[in-house]
Design brief:
- Chains A, B, C, D: Homotetramer.
- Four copies of one chain form a homotetramer.
- Chain A is α+β, with helices and mostly antiparallel strands and 318 residues long.
- The first copy, chain A, has two domains: 2-71 and 211-313, DD-peptidase/beta-lactamase superfamily (Beta-lactamase); 78-205, 3-Layer(aba) Sandwich (Beta-lactamase).
- Chain A has helices at residues 18-30, 42-45, 79-91, 112-116, 127-140, 144-156, 165-173, 176-187, 195-206, 212-218, 220-223, 238-251, 257-263, 300-313; strands at residues 2-7, 10-15, 53-58, 63-67, 73-74, 162-163, 208-210, 268-270, 275-280, 284-289.
- In chain A, the strands form three sheets. A five-stranded antiparallel beta sheet of chain A has the order 4-3-10-9-8, with helices on both faces. A three-stranded antiparallel beta sheet of chain A has the order 5-7-6.
- In chain A, helix 6 packs across helix 10 (212-218).
- The longest helix of chain A has 14 residues, at 127-140.
- Chain A is globular, with a radius of gyration of 18 Å.
- Chains in contact: A-B, A-D, B-C, C-D.
- Chains A and B meet through helix 12 and helix 13 of A and helix 12 and helix 13 of B.
Chain lengths: 318, 318, 318, 318
Amino acid sequence: MTQDVISGGQSIHAPDNLKTLLQTILQQALTVNDGKVADYIPALAEVKSDYCALTVATLDGQVTSVGDATATFSIQSISKIFGLMLAMERMSDSLWERVQMEPSGQPFNSIVQLEWERGIPRNPMINAGAILVSDVLVSHYSASKSAVLSMVRGLCNRDTVCVDSRVHESEKDHGARNAALAYLMKSFGNIESDVEEVLDHYFWQCALTMSTEDLARSFAFLANRGKCPRSGNQITSHRDAQRINALLSTSGMYDQSGQFAFTVGLPAKSGVGGGIVAIVPDYGVIAAWSPPLNSFGNSARGMAMIRNLANQLGLSVY
Amino acid sequence: MTQDVISGGQSIHAPDNLKTLLQTILQQALTVNDGKVADYIPALAEVKSDYCALTVATLDGQVTSVGDATATFSIQSISKIFGLMLAMERMSDSLWERVQMEPSGQPFNSIVQLEWERGIPRNPMINAGAILVSDVLVSHYSASKSAVLSMVRGLCNRDTVCVDSRVHESEKDHGARNAALAYLMKSFGNIESDVEEVLDHYFWQCALTMSTEDLARSFAFLANRGKCPRSGNQITSHRDAQRINALLSTSGMYDQSGQFAFTVGLPAKSGVGGGIVAIVPDYGVIAAWSPPLNSFGNSARGMAMIRNLANQLGLSVY
Amino acid sequence: MTQDVISGGQSIHAPDNLKTLLQTILQQALTVNDGKVADYIPALAEVKSDYCALTVATLDGQVTSVGDATATFSIQSISKIFGLMLAMERMSDSLWERVQMEPSGQPFNSIVQLEWERGIPRNPMINAGAILVSDVLVSHYSASKSAVLSMVRGLCNRDTVCVDSRVHESEKDHGARNAALAYLMKSFGNIESDVEEVLDHYFWQCALTMSTEDLARSFAFLANRGKCPRSGNQITSHRDAQRINALLSTSGMYDQSGQFAFTVGLPAKSGVGGGIVAIVPDYGVIAAWSPPLNSFGNSARGMAMIRNLANQLGLSVY
Amino acid sequence: MTQDVISGGQSIHAPDNLKTLLQTILQQALTVNDGKVADYIPALAEVKSDYCALTVATLDGQVTSVGDATATFSIQSISKIFGLMLAMERMSDSLWERVQMEPSGQPFNSIVQLEWERGIPRNPMINAGAILVSDVLVSHYSASKSAVLSMVRGLCNRDTVCVDSRVHESEKDHGARNAALAYLMKSFGNIESDVEEVLDHYFWQCALTMSTEDLARSFAFLANRGKCPRSGNQITSHRDAQRINALLSTSGMYDQSGQFAFTVGLPAKSGVGGGIVAIVPDYGVIAAWSPPLNSFGNSARGMAMIRNLANQLGLSVY
């Protein structure tokens, strides 16, 4: 038995037993075996490929999970949302003079495009954009890491969220391309602080470890017009929540963002640790995790799980 | 006095007198004077720059207009939606082997990207993609122009919709770059029919002339889960309507699509004739027209009018 | 026994029996089997891969050949020199406002670079540059093909030089990429005549058929300060002969020009028919032919033969 | 009165009084006022724009100079030849697996091309290539700076040649783009040593200060088949001298190399300090200096002086 709820302007087919639906979807996803765990640093390459988790947090406060939903993993690029939130708060509209808001049409680590755009990244969801955001944080916060950590712990209501220092160090050791992006932006005058310090912040925030339950709780405010449904705190304005969702819709899934909009229709962000979060305005957040990545750097099973769930519940914002 | 309606998951602040609101927005837009009428062909360059129109068609069948809303103009790239609809119907999923669904991150007439992508356009909303779609129509319909015209006339319920033959001829005379795109795709084996015939269809559909009222009526099905609210005909499946809206959201406004999503938050398509249509799922369609274009090729006043209306009514899908 | 002659500022180790040396070099070249006959048009793909010819024409009028040196083949891009000669004569310095003289650093048919350079080809030895030159000829000669044919027949002293009409037609049928280059130049206003006519001239001159003896005789003036050693006619000024040699040195061997300068050190031009001509200032011309091409589009055996001969005789201009 | 000498395969019109000719050419050059002194670092921007020097060192040991020919200046990219000489000596042919020998067709500091070529620079005369060469020196010499300095002092026979430490430090402070190039190569695995150390060597060698007389003497071996005409030492093999000259011919004058070959016809290398050296095989070396640069980064007066001298003496190798 199901009941209809109104969300995204559409009646969502909400099952009596969401958990059963999630379980079915997770089982189907486990048959997907065509991805490859990120191996550019040893600390990520060692992660077991059979982890799989799916969590839905709805705005009424319910959190429904299946699989390894409390196991923590490296959130990697999902952290770009956290950095962006703080930078938007601190810089307001002037932020957008230093980073654009356009889809890139290029791989996430493209240096070619950064050169064409004279050191102005296309958006804050590609690496160059997130490094630019890290420069803003390092330049405008006395303790940029603490600022991020404090915000994240508050959002997911878990004070033990921390960074995997081995991943952090490993990223720095293998971060030559990101260093190239940062130095190129500096050569165009678009990095204010010391490049090494900026990169250190960037790699640090990529190394945050969270579970799908942590992520689903953290981003509930984006589905709730900027207000955290648990605490009632207005995290961002409704307008800024919509803006962040817009950025995620056009640029959140690397160079597969268009396909994700076409087949799923939700604002979302992925990370090479295998995590994906998808925002369903006025309904809730879906968080998925499974380490093997497709050729675009998105979790193969995570994509499949969110697509199935969104299609079955009719969640597309379009 | 206003009343609240539910749309896009959000209560839309629907004014008693929508016409008064539109009138105010149109007056404000007329103070915007920083665009430039398209001048790459004489037939477009001659259009008076002070035309301005704004129409809202809601799903209950009401059409509210201010300004030159029954004057017809060259719809140009807005016609890409019509072409795409027929190609999706004829080709189904195999269409997406010949054109991608990713934002381009490049100007609409980029030949560089088409070369990188080995003749596979990034999406059907850039010129290369629409030329590819024209090849599909020319190759799969015995009379591709008639097929488009018949569909368009039916959608907007006006049997006198036609093509401006002077614009059509003028486009052909100045179409060297589009010819370059077509021949490059042919060199990669991605054009089946004769290039001249394909370009003729493409230039022909760009030269369709319609009013904002015509456009608002035509695309109402995209806001109505694929069904035409006037005739009750299911024009496309709900799924395909969502897919088209997704493409418009990531790629409909040329290289300003990300900014439009960020500031407006609606699927939309513009043309260099100065027209813009924006889809509000489960609410209706906004159509705007004013010839002067900003540097991205989008109507400067049209952008301003739709942004103001969307923000005041809270229409963002995000 | 050998004698020393002075050429290129260096004593050239000229063997008593040049023919014997050429024979040895040709035999060694026949053991090279790693190329692939051009197959983009059937008429070229059918050419037997075991043809091999080597000719040296010295300024004293001697022509020494081994192998299939009187068999004719499609000279393809070698014809770019003939076109350039006529265009330089007709346009003088103003030619260089429409085509640059810089190495391209890109494949010979790059459309990306042409876009960056706003329709101005990097040099007359890449396809775009030669198409531009063809536009000059079509626009400035009442009968551009006759002008080329007459000049070529005079240079090689053979009135039966002609075009392989099957190759000519076949090039046109498979010329989509060159059409893309031409239309892109036209879109930038850098093509004056009708694109179809320009391409027809270009494909026609590529289809000229000549033997290595024809080629060696034809280009002797480039080694002789502009004067044809046979007729005594001043074909170009000394300055223009040096300029053409300079272009061949930086841009004559496709994207292997730098390597050819490094390993051989002579101005040279190749064609995908398998022919190569190399100019030795104040000494003579080397012409080689063998159809199988390396990955850069240069004759694999032709490269080997010219390199061996140049190294053994000490012919580098550097 | 003049006498004819044989060089480059051509009789060179050697004036009785070379000094008078040089004086005339220098006076003409001083009327050229359209360049701009390099200003990317303060230490270069401060150099007086009216310095001008011209030196010819012939293989008989004569050194003829006019203007500020003993004043020292920052040789900048001319140092790339010194680095390359040591790297060729140490690495032999394996060097060319890590750097190509093709003209770049791009600005000297292009990062776009380096990305396309997967971290393999197009040639050792662009910045990326010279940084790669610096990595070779840092990795293969226990004291790479000493090795360079010792070689340079020996070549020009002046033990006081040194580095301008203010320029060296200043380059490091403004070296973000070069750092981007180095880190990008490292990300492709093509830098072995520590990036900071590699860049330090690179910036150090760019800061070498020499006079036109120093430079003319230093590179005489390149005109003399590898042998220093003063000491009689074989600096490189004849083959390697020709190879270096070939690289200078196709890639020595930044993105004006093709034009320099076309109008002058000599292997040459320029630096943003305003120096240029040109090699005349079997004749000698021309060195020119004047700080104001044209838009390509080449000394405007230096180009004019070398072109005039080469044309008047008929020095083109082609």
